[in-house]
Design brief:
Blueprint: H1 2-7, H2 13-43, H3 46-49, H4 56-63, H5 72-76, H6 81-99, H7 115-118, H8 139-144, H9 149-153, H10 177-185, H11 187-190, H12 194-203, H13 210-213, H14 228-248, H15 264-269, H16 280-286, H17 288-294, H18 305-315, H19 317-320, H20 339-342, H21 351-354, H22 375-379
């Protein structure tokens, strides 16, 4: 027995070294991958993104958006190990640039969010969409025509704050949860607008009829009243011109500006320049859709109307200004007949007092007037 033990050789030292190296390698790799996974998870959170000072606007708008439960990386990175490694490398480069103050402001996306990022959650071919009102949105048809998600929904997470010039370096300290909520409360920046729909349909030569996108045809109940067109629409427009403009601005062949409601942000900042002084009378002269009817001479304007038009004007000047203006020689509707066409205010209110010759209560030119004045000039107004 003792002889057999002597014959068994001891394991070589190199084998012990190999075991040690393998054990340490396994421990090192386990530690490396654990730290890597922890780092990957930590740097993939939206909280990590918000740690950069220049990301405050994007973070607070995202936090107030409908996508606040979706982390940044779910939309801003493509799947795959190769792409993830590239994104993390870019992150290091941006961090270095930040230290040297080389990062650009405002922050803009180098590329658009791909449809594949949206389709991780949204199935446009099968999902039931909870759109508001009577809007018809056939997402499957848009998909077939290669209309990208971002073309309609570019503001869903950040409200297009870069385009609104809200992300410059001087603005960083102003951002907090309250400002984020205000910026995202303005729906024209977070939802598809009718302007976007109309521009796209016109460029693609697709119908712009109301019934193509609205189940009700978008005709208000008030418009069905027989007296609406000839009698009451002007009175309603005077009170609700912004509502009128919401639909009828698309029916004009020229751009209509100055009638939209001030944005939520403008109200929040109390921006005086956002206030418009335009009214329904201006609108009737600017919108070519209105002019199709308004350019027709009213039946009341007969041959004898001119002699008594001043008396009629005194009863309701507002009604006159629907087509005419006071001191301009032409209007947006190309109506060259205005008060100043004849009433050029050559006679000041107290002209009688300063007249070199007493004129008494004369109300129309006498032959003696033409001693100094030109008869043709006077007769343009005084018939």
């Amino acid at each position: 027995m003792d002889e057999e033990k002597k014959q068994l050789s001891a394991p070589p030292r190199s084998r012990y070294k190999l075991y040690k190296v393998m054990t340490l390698t396994v421990l090192f790799l386990a530690l490396f991958f654990s730290l890597g996974m922890f780092g990957l998870e930590a740097t993939s959170s939206s909280t990590f993104c918000s740690s950069c000072h220049e990301m405050k606007p994007e973070y607070y708008t995202w936090k107030a958006s409908s996508h606040s439960e979706v982390d940044c990386v779910n939309c801003h990175t493509e799947p795959g190990i190769k792409q993830t490694a590239k994104d993390k490398a870019d992150l290091i480069v941006k961090a270095v640039k930040k230290n040297y103050n080389e990062s650009a402001a405002p922050i803009r996306m180098p590329g658009e969010i791909s449809d594949s990022a949206c389709e991780k959650c949204h199935n446009v071919l099968q999902r039931e969409f909870t759109v508001s009102g009577d809007i018809i949105i056939p997402h499957d048809k848009h998909k077939e025509e290669d209309v990208k998600c971002i073309q309609c929904h570019s503001g869903v997470a950040h409200g297009e704050i870069a385009d609104r010039e809200m992300t410059f370096k001087t603005d960083y300290d102003k951002w907090d949860s309250d400002l984020g909520e205000v910026a995202m409360a303005d729906l024209k920046w977070t939802r598809p607008t009718m302007d976007s729909c109309m521009e796209c349909h016109e460029s693609r030569q697709i119908t712009t009829e109301c019934s193509a996108c609205h189940t009700t045809g978008m005709i208000p109940d008030s418009h069905a009243n027989p007296s609406f067109k000839a009698e009451t629409h002007g009175l309603q427009a005077k009170e609700e011109i912004k509502d009128c403009n919401f639909c009828h601005k698309y029916m004009s062949t020229v751009e209509i500006e100055g009638y939209d409601e001030p944005s939520v942000l403008a109200k929040y900042l109390n921006t005086e320049s956002q206030k418009s002084h335009k009214n329904a009378n201006n609108y009737a002269k600017e919108n070519t859709y209105c002019l199709d009817c308004h350019k027709t001479r009213p039946t009341s304007h007969t041959d004898s109307f001119f002699s008594g038009h001043g008396t009629e004007a005194e009863k309701n000047q507002e009604q006159c200004f629907t087509c005419h203006e006071n001191n301009r020689t032409s209007t947006a509707g190309s109506n060259a007949v205005n008060c100043s066409s004849c009433h050029q205010k050559k006679h000041l209110e107290n002209w009688r007092e300063d007249h070199p010759i007493p004129v008494g209560d004369v109300t129309k030119p006498q032959e003696s007037c033409y001693t100094c004045h030109v008869k043709k000039t006077c007769s343009n107004c005084h018939k």
